[in-house]
Amino acid sequence: MGNMTLAVSDELQEKMSKHKEIRWSNIARETFEERIKELELMDKILKDSKLTEADAEEIGNKVKAEIRKRFEKRFGSWN
């Protein structure tokens, strides 16, 4: 099994040290595994995609605009 050294802020380290019952290396490993599964799924989905980067950016901008509209409708404008 490979090893990895991970740096965290002093503040985070202090908070983590208050919970010695938690095996933080397991939390990190599980998180890495979850992210890898997400990336592998994304690679599988995009394998045969004809979507260009510009297309993806346009879709992303439209999604963000709709999310903003919903947020402003529910919570009001923050500008």
Q: What does it look like?
A:
By secondary structure, the chain is mostly helical. The chain folds into two domains: 8-48; 50-79. Helices cover 68% and strands 0% of the residues. It is built from three helices and no strands. It is flat and about 45 Å long. The model has no long low-confidence stretch (mean pLDDT 93).
* Unreliable runs: none
In helices, the fraction of residues equals: 55-70%
Q: Span between N and C termini?
A: 51 Å
| Number of structurally distinct domains | 2
The H-and-E topology, N to C, reads as HHH
Mean pLDDT: 93
Q: Counting H and I runs of at least 4 residues, what is the number of helices?
A: 3
Strand content: under 5%
Rounded Rg: 20 Å
Total strand segments: 0
Largest sheet: none
Q: Class by helix and strand content?
A: mainly alpha
Shape: flat
